[in-house]
């Protein structure tokens, strides 16, 4: 029996940039974390966006939105003009779905998707991207300091001093590499 390796999700607090983190190591050896439609369905469910099904073409569409959000967020982080094609895709996705925030009897809230379709779910993600890219929320777009990652992330920390998209992965790896480099320098002072 062969075991198919499915990469785990990188789950963050901000919906739009957590979605872009379904592809990691963009500048190294990219890891696709939604390789098949069922994994997109799983990912959406984690964020309370429960859809009935997902086709291969809906997955392609979702990835197109993902890369458009990443391109636009990267431009904001670099203080460059927004790429027009990315803006178009984000706006189309935002407009082509139905979703409403609704109160639960317990006083919380959740999304109600109009037709439980992938398009409905993508409209929620696109709207979230609009709000962070347009600077509507307290925080700042930044790029991960890891040279193989360079993921765009939303830094909501006080003083906006976050350097890595995720401390547990990119942050720790860089710390480890720096530690090893220092150790090499010490053990080989001539080199
Ligand atoms: Zn990173």
Automatic annotation (TrEMBL):
Domain Zinc finger CGNR: 142-181
Protein known as: ABATE domain-containing protein
Origin organism lineage: Bacteria, Bacillati, Actinomycetota, Actinomycetes, Kitasatosporales
